[in-house]
Amino acid sequence: MDLIKNEYQVIIDRKNEKAEGSYTAYLFEQGLDKILKKVGEECTEMVIAAKNNDKEETVYEVTDLIYHTLVMMANQGITPEDIEAELEKRAAKRGNLKTFHQVDKNS
Protein backbone atom coordinates (compact mmCIF):
# COMPACT_ATOMS: atom_id res chain seq x y z
CA MET A 1 0.00 0.00 0.00
CA ASP A 2 3.01 2.30 0.34
CA LEU A 3 3.23 2.73 -3.44
CA ILE A 4 -0.42 3.73 -3.53
CA LYS A 5 0.08 6.22 -0.68
CA ASN A 6 3.17 7.65 -2.37
CA GLU A 7 1.36 8.06 -5.69
CA TYR A 8 -1.60 9.64 -3.89
CA GLN A 9 0.75 12.17 -2.25
CA VAL A 10 2.26 13.06 -5.62
CA ILE A 11 -1.27 13.61 -6.94
CA ILE A 12 -2.13 15.84 -3.96
CA ASP A 13 1.09 17.81 -4.56
CA ARG A 14 0.19 18.31 -8.25
CA LYS A 15 -3.29 19.39 -7.23
CA ASN A 16 -1.91 22.00 -4.83
CA GLU A 17 0.98 23.18 -7.01
CA LYS A 18 -1.05 23.45 -10.22
CA ALA A 19 2.21 22.85 -12.08
CA GLU A 20 2.10 23.96 -15.70
CA GLY A 21 2.39 21.02 -18.08
CA SER A 22 1.29 18.51 -15.44
CA TYR A 23 -1.35 16.06 -16.69
CA THR A 24 -2.57 15.61 -13.14
CA ALA A 25 -2.95 19.37 -12.65
CA TYR A 26 -4.81 19.49 -15.98
CA LEU A 27 -7.29 16.88 -14.76
CA PHE A 28 -8.00 18.89 -11.61
CA GLU A 29 -8.42 22.08 -13.67
CA GLN A 30 -10.95 20.32 -15.90
CA GLY A 31 -12.95 19.13 -12.92
CA LEU A 32 -14.87 16.10 -11.78
CA ASP A 33 -16.63 15.36 -15.09
CA LYS A 34 -13.28 15.03 -16.92
CA ILE A 35 -11.79 12.95 -14.11
CA LEU A 36 -14.78 10.60 -14.09
CA LYS A 37 -14.68 10.33 -17.89
CA LYS A 38 -11.07 9.17 -17.63
CA VAL A 39 -11.93 6.66 -14.88
CA GLY A 40 -14.68 5.25 -17.11
CA GLU A 41 -12.41 5.08 -20.15
CA GLU A 42 -9.67 3.31 -18.24
CA CYS A 43 -12.16 0.87 -16.72
CA THR A 44 -13.46 -0.03 -20.17
CA GLU A 45 -9.93 -0.40 -21.55
CA MET A 46 -9.03 -2.69 -18.65
CA VAL A 47 -12.10 -4.86 -19.29
CA ILE A 48 -11.26 -5.16 -22.99
CA ALA A 49 -7.63 -6.05 -22.27
CA ALA A 50 -8.73 -8.72 -19.79
CA LYS A 51 -11.34 -10.05 -22.21
CA ASN A 52 -8.58 -10.31 -24.83
CA ASN A 53 -6.57 -12.31 -22.29
CA ASP A 54 -3.63 -9.91 -22.75
CA LYS A 55 -1.82 -9.90 -19.41
CA GLU A 56 0.67 -7.14 -20.28
CA GLU A 57 -2.04 -4.82 -21.58
CA THR A 58 -4.32 -5.66 -18.66
CA VAL A 59 -1.59 -4.76 -16.16
CA TYR A 60 -1.02 -1.48 -18.02
CA GLU A 61 -4.73 -0.63 -18.00
CA VAL A 62 -5.20 -1.62 -14.33
CA THR A 63 -2.36 0.78 -13.50
CA ASP A 64 -4.04 3.57 -15.50
CA LEU A 65 -7.33 2.85 -13.73
CA ILE A 66 -5.66 2.99 -10.31
CA TYR A 67 -3.99 6.31 -11.16
CA HIS A 68 -7.20 7.92 -12.40
CA THR A 69 -9.12 6.49 -9.43
CA LEU A 70 -6.55 8.08 -7.10
CA VAL A 71 -7.06 11.42 -8.88
CA MET A 72 -10.82 11.05 -8.37
CA MET A 73 -10.26 10.17 -4.72
CA ALA A 74 -8.07 13.24 -4.20
CA ASN A 75 -10.67 15.41 -5.88
CA GLN A 76 -13.38 14.03 -3.59
CA GLY A 77 -11.33 14.18 -0.40
CA ILE A 78 -11.06 10.39 -0.11
CA THR A 79 -7.72 9.14 1.22
CA PRO A 80 -5.96 5.80 0.93
CA GLU A 81 -6.54 5.49 4.67
CA ASP A 82 -10.30 5.71 4.04
CA ILE A 83 -9.99 2.79 1.62
CA GLU A 84 -7.83 0.82 4.06
CA ALA A 85 -10.44 1.31 6.79
CA GLU A 86 -13.18 -0.01 4.51
CA LEU A 87 -11.04 -2.99 3.52
CA GLU A 88 -10.40 -3.74 7.20
CA LYS A 89 -14.16 -3.69 7.85
CA ARG A 90 -14.68 -6.10 4.98
CA ALA A 91 -11.85 -8.36 6.14
CA ALA A 92 -13.59 -8.66 9.50
CA LYS A 93 -16.64 -10.04 7.70
CA ARG A 94 -14.75 -12.76 5.81
CA GLY A 95 -16.48 -16.08 5.94
CA ASN A 96 -19.92 -14.57 6.30
CA LEU A 97 -22.20 -15.41 3.42
CA LYS A 98 -23.91 -12.45 1.84
CA THR A 99 -27.52 -12.61 0.78
CA PHE A 100 -27.81 -11.60 -2.84
CA HIS A 101 -31.00 -10.13 -4.20
CA GLN A 102 -32.66 -11.68 -7.20
CA VAL A 103 -32.75 -9.62 -10.37
CA ASP A 104 -35.73 -9.92 -12.65
CA LYS A 105 -34.08 -10.04 -16.06
CA ASN A 106 -37.43 -9.78 -17.80
CA SER A 107 -38.15 -6.25 -16.68
SSE topology sketch:
Layout: H1 2-17, H2 23-30, H3 32-51, H4 55-76, H5 80-92
Major sheet details: none
Structural class: mainly alpha
Count, helices: 5
Q: Fraction of residues in helices?
A: over 70%
Number of strands: 0
H/E series: HHHHH
Question: Which term fits the overall shape?
Answer: globular
Radius of gyration, CA atoms, in whole angstroms: 17 Å
Low-confidence stretches: none
Distance between the termini: 42 Å
The pLDDT mean sits at: 91
Content of β-strand = under 5%
Short description:
The protein is mainly α and 107 residues long. It is built from five helices and no strands. The protein has helices at residues 2-17, 23-30, 32-51, 55-76, 80-92.
Report on the architecture of this protein.
The mean pLDDT is 91. The radius of gyration is 17 Å and the shape is globular. It is built from five helices and no strands. The chain has helices at 2-17, 23-30, 32-51, 55-76, 80-92. With 107 residues, it is mostly helical.
Properties at a glance:
mainly alpha; 5 helices; 0% strand; 107 residues
